[in-house]
Amino acid sequence: MLDHDFENNLDQSQLLWDKQGISSLLACGSLCNPDPSCRSFFYHPSLKKCLGSQSYKRGLPSGQSVQQGWNYYTKSQQCDGDYIFNKTIGLCFKIYPETKPYLEAMAACEAEGAKLIIIRNQMEYDHVRTALKAAGPLTYPLNGLRKIVLNGKETWTWWNGDIPSHVDWAPGEPNNYFWSEYCGNFMPGDGGQYQFDDINCLSSCSFVCQKNI
Fold it and tell me: What residue intervals traverse the membrane (predicted)?
């Protein structure tokens, strides 16, 4: 699919390969399509160059100059099943209004080849929170945040072990109510703010799954 936002522009970050002597757009696409790590590609018909990328581009780098002749194409921008594809943040995610405890929610995500959602930055948080607000009533939807003991200290991490760089805790949170709250959720709050909150991992909650793309 041609992306006009990148017409006559080239972003060489996160490239997988740079092929020369590629005679057609079709030939360039045929290099990317069977490669599961290739999400998109740039092609220049005059230079006969094809550049494969491991990501969906979400905006031009600052100070990017015009480079005539380049065009940018993406593979299918759809998610499996009824997952939501958001190109801006490069996520496939699904909101489950039904409720489950943390481990059962994670198992439900994994059964679909997914995991509980990880929020990496403000942009992702804004888009996911907008989707949560639009989803209707939800019961403290779980995310992939959890509290573990790391180097002798209780620490919040994502399920993959990463330390969160962006967590917008609700006022007074995390409060570890009754010393029993070791899992993360989005607290609806007044007006559907969906800020981060800690909750008992055995509490039955809605949840949000995320698939890699």
Answer: none
Report CA torsion sign: 32, 33, 38, 43.
Answer: positive
Residue 165 structural domain: 84-211
Asked if 1 contacts 32 with a C-beta cutoff of 8 angstroms, the reply is no
pTM, two decimal places? 0.69
Give start and end residues of each alpha helix (H) in the chain: 25-32, 102-110, 122-134
pLDDT in tens, 83-114: 887 766 778 899 999 999 999 999 999 999 99
By the 8 A CB rule, do 108 and 207 touch?
Answer: yes
pLDDT at 5: 56
Residues of the chain with pLDDT under 70: 1-9, 57-66, 76-78, 87-88, 213
Q: Which residues have a Cβ under 8 Å from the Cβ of 175 and sit 6 or more positions away?
A: 181, 198
One domain for residues 150 and 88: yes
Of 22, 40, 74, the position where a domain reaches its end is 74
Cis peptide before 164 (omega within 30 of 0): no
Of 56, 74, 92, at which residue does a domain stop? 74
Q: Are residues 125 and 198 in the same domain?
A: yes
